[in-house]
Structures are given as structure tokens and as C-alpha cells.
Amino acid sequence: MSVVSKKYTKAIIEQFDKKSLEGVVNKFEQISSAFSDAKFTQIINSPAVTTKQKEELVLSFFSKPDKKFSNLISLLATNKRLHLIPEICSNLKNQMVAMNNEFMGQIYSNANLSATAIKTLEEVYSKKFDAKIKFEHIKSDIDGIRINVEDLGVEVNFSLDKLKAKLSEYILQAI
User: Fold this and answer.
1) Within 10 A of 58 (CB to CB), how many other CB atoms are there?
2) Whether pTM exceeds 0.85
3) pLDDT lower than 50: segments of the chain
4) 32 and 47 share a domain?
């Protein structure tokens, strides 16, 4: 995450109200998806294409963009920062999630978890951290379970191997 994209993210958040900000994020997502096309990226990064042409290309994604958004794209084009749109989009999404007190987490395990189990974990963690937390299950080769909510700095690991080792150690100490 570059310092420049953080500054643009902060300025965008200050200039747009919450509803408009959601619209900007949606528009940036559409533009960001175009960056997966090599030709689009090549045009945006090409010194042979004028700034005005790049701006018009980006704005052509939308039938009638509002004036504020058009000015934002114009500013990015003028400062040769159009290539930062995917990064700014990602930053904006993270900031909006934090503003709404909603966080995304991952559950890693080698077993399939039911929707009910995931829902229960979401409720428990939401209550504990006084925030809305959604989990996605990621199948992995971990022998146990790992829960990670990166934005809150929370990671919980439970390993069956560690449990067996600690239990064996405790039994040997008791003897």
C-alpha cells in the first residue's frame, strides 16, 4: 500500500458522503476489473496516449458519471495516478468496512464446517469484539482450526498435534 494511494483514499473519504462513497467504490471496482486486461493496463501506462484520452477511456465505463467523480478521475489522470485506482479501491473498501464496524475473517481447517458452525463463530466473535464479523471458510491442511481477523489483529489457533503433545507432557509430569 503506497503512501500516495493512502493520501488519495483519505481525500476521497473526506470529500464524499457515505452514500456517494459507496458509489465511488462501486465505480472504482468496475475500473479495477479492467486492469486485469493487459491491453487496458498497457493503454493506461503508455506515454503515447494523452492524459485526456486516458481520462476519457476510464470515464467511458459509465453512461453519465457525476461531476465530482469526473473531476476525481480527471485529477488522477492529470497527476498520472490512474494506475493507482485498484489500490485506492482496495483502501476505500477497507476504510468503509472499518467505518461500518464490519470486519471479514477467515477460518482455516482441514474439515468442512457447516454453515451453522460458521454462523455460531460469527455471533461469538461479533459479541466479543462488539463489531459485525463475517467469516469465510478456507480449506487447508492444518490439523485443527485457525481463525484470523486481520483488521482486528486477532488470530486464534487450535492444533490437535499441540493438544496431544501438551497432554502427553502433562501425563509424564504427573507420573
Assistant:
1) 24
2) no
3) none
4) yes
